[in-house]
Design a protein that fits this description.
There is one protein chain. This protein is of the alpha/beta class. It has three domains: 2-83 and 262-283, NadA-like (Rossmann fold, 3-Layer(aba) Sandwich); 88-171 and 287-299, Rossmann fold (3-Layer(aba) Sandwich); 177-252, Rossmann fold (3-Layer(aba) Sandwich). It is 42% helix and 16% strand. It has 15 helices and twelve strands. Helix 4 (61-70) packs across helix 15. Bound molecules: 1,3-dihydroxyacetonephosphate (13P) and iron/sulfur cluster. 1,3-dihydroxyacetonephosphate binds at residues 24, 39-41, 85, 113, 127-129, 171, 197, 199, 213-214.
């Protein structure tokens, strides 16, 4: 049954000239069948340049929206329309506009974990992989950073010359990883390196040997001479870490590192979505054009 479902998904992707993009937090079986897995930045770049007619986005809503913004001529499917991101819901365009009125002329840097409408009211977007470079690329010495207060504070540590105005948003999944849980894992696994995502609380990031995006973690763990790692991000990352590093050991920093939204999409959902070519994610043209400016500006920031 399950190899049959995989074959049906692959056949339908071929019929519709579709590409299957999956975030690094997706269920193992979804990552396994994807054409491309990656972090938010890699998937945005892929969505911008793909020659496919159909993008099937296995991730959460804001990611599929970004694909629809960057590739308006393509159909974008999000197999589970209820896969949202609580952090993205923590700021609305009206709230951002009200903050902007209090700080006229100050540019807005918006984490891609946000709605298309919020992006449309922003100057530039960033992901966790390029946030420091994006902030450094600004001429202004003051900026508004939305919505993730933890990513914002982590970035600010690399750019002390700029003044940040933070929004009070956060990722509930990463914030459930407590200092106590991490300290306990470090005590249980002496010699292991602790690597965490910048969405983690500052007291947790302070304990880390390295803080980086999900793709940064693959790179760090692959190239590090260490053989044991305590991983401080969503559990889905373990699939590829273990597959690509057979001789190394990976321990999740906390059992709470489980994002319910990222775990919604099943192979069955994927198959139904391809059979029905729905649900389609679209963005109203006026919002799309403005949000695209902020995403394009981010994509134009040199990566190295
Ligand atoms: P990255 O893959 O860009 O590190 O994003 C993490 C995340 O929380 C996405 O929802
Ligand atoms: Fe949102 Fe956090 Fe889940 Fe990513 S892991 S989708 S930031 S709630």
């Amino acid at each position: 049954m399950s190899s049959d479902i995989r074959q049906q998904i692959r056949d339908l992707l071929k019929t519709h000239n579709g590409v299957l993009l999956a975030h690094n937090y997706m269920r193992d079986e979804v990552q396994e069948i994807a054409d491309i897995t990656g972090d938010s930045l890699a998937l945005s770049i892929e969505a911008a340049k793909t020659s496919a007619d159909l993008i099937v986005f296995c991730g959460v809503h804001f990611m599929a929206e970004s694909a629809a913004i960057l590739s308006p001529d393509k159909k974008v499917l999000l197999p589970r329309p209820d896969a949202g991101c609580p952090m993205a819901d923590m700021v609305t365009a009206a709230e951002l506009e009200s903050l902007k009125r209090q700080h006229p002329g100050v540019p807005v840097v918006t984490y891609v974990n946000s709605s298309a409408e919020v992006k449309a009211h922003s100057d530039i977007c960033c992901t966790s992989a390029n946030a420091v470079k994006v902030v450094k690329s600004l001429r202004e010495d003051e900026l508004i950073f939305v919505p993730d207060r933890n990513l914002g504070r982590w970035v600010a540590g690399f750019v002390p010359e700029k003044k940040f105005i933070f929004w009070d948003g956060f990722c509930p999944t990463h914030e459930r990883m407590t200092v106590q849980a991490v300290r306990q894992k470090i005590a249980e696994h002496p010699g292991a390196l602790f690597v965490c995502h910048p969405e983690s609380a500052p007291e947790v990031s302070a304990l880390a040997d390295h803080v980086c995006s999900t793709s940064g973690m693959y790179e760090y763990c692959r190239t590090s001479p260490a053989t044991k790692f305590i991983i401080g991000t969503e559990a889905g990352i373990l699939y590829k870490l273990r597959r690509e590093n057979r001789g190394k050991e990976f321990v999740l920093a906390s059992p709470a590192l489980f994002c319910p939204n990222m775990k919604l999409t099943s192979l069955e959902d994927l198959l139904i979505s391809l059979q029905t070519l729905s649900p389609v994610v679209t963005v109203p043209e006026e919002i799309r054009l403005k949000a695209k400016r902020a995403l394009d500006r981010m994509l134009a920031v040199p990566r190295d």
